[in-house]
Amino acid sequence: MSKIKLGILGGGEDSLIGVLHRVASSMFDKYEVVGGVFDPTYDKSLNFGKKLGLDPDRLYRDLDHLVEEENKRAEEDRIQVISVLTPNFLHFPMAKKLVENNFHVICEKPLTTTYEEAKVLVDLQAEKGKIFGVTYTYTGYPMVRQMKQMIADGVIGKIQKVDVQYYQGWINPIIHDKEKRSSTWRLDPGKSGISCCIGDIGTHAFNMVEYVTGQQVEQILADLNYLYEDNPMDIDGTVLLRFSGKAKGVLRASQIATGEENNFTVQIYGEKGGLKWQQENPNYLYLMVDGKPLQVLKPGHVYNSDFSLEGTKLPPGHPEGIFDSMGNIYLGIANAINGKKKFDGAYPLLQEGARGMKFIEKTVASHKEGNVWIKLDD
After folding, report:
1. 359: containing domain
2. Torsion angle, CA of 27/32/35/41, rounded to 10 degrees?
3. Whole-prediction pTM value?
4. Domains in the chain: how many in total?
5. Same domain as 173, residue 123
6. Of 102, 135, 168, which closes a domain?
7. What is the H or E stretch that residue 161 is in?
8. What is the pLDDT of residues 196-245, one digit of tens each?
9. What is the dihedral of CA 340, 344, 347, 348, to 10 degrees?
């Protein structure tokens, strides 16, 4: 089967999120990135697209140019789905135009800057029948999916308490500098919407608790922190939650939690047990039951649900970060091929492979000779 033709808006050369999306799209060999608009400056977008090996004819000046030219192509050659990786204020107009022109859409969160905009997209999608995904990234972790399945299966019983925390510290060195806090787009309501912390990471936490519990939040009580009078955007907040199933909970989000990196922790407590998952250690799902030892579930094992196993790309004991590790080796080899050696140890050498073979043979020899000491090097 041919790969799905993927276009990208945003996510250019200096974008972390762009790397994440391109790698993610390549993992299961389902997509092929064929074009897009990677930067608002056309020359930068063009140069970056060329670095990716894309056809310059599909590196467009802007979204209007992309839609116009792609609509001229035959159906089998046209971009099918487009990822929107731009700042928040561009999500709505871009997604709207894409759906109107019959493209499927993958969009970063928050979806839009207002609920009214979001409703327009919902209605438009229903009319056009296009696929539209929002990248609440953490729901893709196998052990999050295992948590969801276990809760649905009643393993921990009726949910009583939900505690979700998402703490970062990256705004701390910015917020205390008047010039910096007034020039960062995340703290600009015109670009980010009415919320910074809750809009950026609090929405992840909110989506997560509804995702894993299968319940909707019915009532909230929020206390937000802005720190400075001239800062119009929240950078910290606590929200009390009341769920449809009578459970109660708390959502804590902060971007001024000094020293924290990406501390996203989800804790769900039921009448028969509790489940805990931490994003910084995503391969461990903890099951806690009164009177029993703590159980640690890990991805790839047959005791996990089919939903969890479908999203597990590796055997047990292999963290998902191994993809990054392999990518770094490919980078080292590519640098060597291009005469751009930067670091010793950037990739394993032939000599290391040979030494590995020596180790194998000497090990077998030691066993056969009566379990004796053998020098690896004669």
Report:
1. 323-368
2. 10
3. 0.88
4. 3
5. no
6. 135
7. strand 159-167
8. 999 899 999 999 999 999 999 999 999 999 999 999 999 999 999 999 88
9. 140
